[in-house]
């Protein structure tokens, strides 16, 4: 799994993931993902458009980081999920606790409110 | 000379999957190789991957909690438009079908990060069952191939 980190509008961390977010990837990515999101102490958006598989250990990573960010008063949003990863997010009710939206602009709006 | 009959493809795959994270991807690739050209539904393959990953991870968490060496015998049977996966191990008794689902949290602060694997596997499966046979956990999942 690959991860690309950038900054949007000078104040939001953007993490673009690509590949399979399975147990092995979550294990490999964990510290870097947390450093790119929760440790920054500012809002974060995660581009899921190139994630072609999402399993429970990937969900664990996303929830842990969103929680850590929330504890610092900031939000995280996911955007661009494909049909099948979106189904996984919905089946696990992640969309009830973390904004899951279609576009980057919607994600930026969700973390700014 | 008449053409020879096409060789029939095998309908059963048996794999010994060692306990450990590193064994997941080779197991997945072996199952995909077995099904190559026979399952074209991307959704069915996605659900297969979910069941494989979550079931094998579950064995990793629960079957050998004290670090005792052990693995999972995986048998995959292709029956028409259904796929049956049978996971066998000799670890601690654990019935995945009775595992408690995490409560759906209304707020992020109340959400537990983990515990969703078996729920995802169940949602992907058409049916699942568990039995303890002698010293073995036998967990069987049937998937629709659409």
Distance between the termini of chain B: 39 Å
- Largest sheet descriptor of chain A: 5 strands, mixed
**Beta-strand residue percentage of chain B:** 25-35%
Spatial shape of chain B? globular
Query: Helicity level of chain B, as a percent range?
Result: 25-40%
What Rg of chain A is obtained from the alpha carbons, in whole angstroms?
A: 12 Å
Unreliable residue stretches of chain B: none
Measured between the Cα atoms of the first and last residue of chain A, the distance is 30 Å
What order do the helices and strands of chain B follow? EHHEEHEE
- Going by CATH, what is the homologous superfamily of chain A? STAS domain
Overall mean pLDDT score of chain A? 95
Shape of chain A: globular
Q: Which pair has the most extensive contact?
A: A-B, 23 and 28 residues
Could you say what the CATH architecture of chain A is? 2-Layer Sandwich
What's the domain count of chain A? 1
Q: Kindly name the structural category of chain B.
A: alpha+beta
Q: Tell me, what is the CATH class of chain A?
A: Alpha Beta
């Amino acid at each position: 799994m690959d991860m690309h980190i950038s900054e949007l509008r000078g104040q939001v961390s953007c993490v673009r993931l690509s590949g399979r977010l399975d147990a092995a990837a979550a294990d490999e990515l964990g510290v870097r993902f947390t450093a790119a999101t929760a440790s920054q102490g500012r809002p974060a958006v995660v581009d899921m458009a190139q994630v072609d598989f999402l399993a429970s250990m990937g969900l664990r990573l996303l929830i842990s980081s969103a929680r850590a960010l929330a504890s610092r008063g900031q939000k995280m949003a996911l955007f661009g999920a494909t049909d099948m990863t979106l189904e996984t997010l919905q089946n696990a009710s992640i969309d009830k606790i973390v904004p899951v939206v279609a576009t980057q602009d919607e994600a930026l709006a969700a973390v700014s409110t | 000379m008449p053409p020879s009959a096409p060789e029939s493809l095998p309908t059963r795959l048996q794999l010994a999957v060692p306990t450990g994270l590193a064994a997941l991807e080779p197991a997945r690739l072996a199952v995909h190789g077995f099904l190559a050209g026979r399952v074209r539904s991307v959704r069915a393959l996605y659900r297969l991957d979910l069941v494989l990953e979550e079931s094998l991870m579950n064995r990793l968490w629960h079957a050998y909690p004290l670090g005792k060496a052990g693995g999972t015998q995986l048998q995959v049977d292709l029956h028409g438009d259904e796929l049956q996966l049978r996971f066998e191990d000799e670890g601690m008794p654990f019935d995945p079908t009775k595992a408690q689902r995490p409560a759906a949290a209304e707020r992020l602060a109340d959400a537990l990060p983990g515990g969703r694997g078996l729920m995802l596997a169940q949602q992907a499966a058409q049916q699942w069952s568990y039995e303890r046979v002698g010293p073995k956990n036998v967990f069987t999942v049937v998937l629709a191939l659409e």
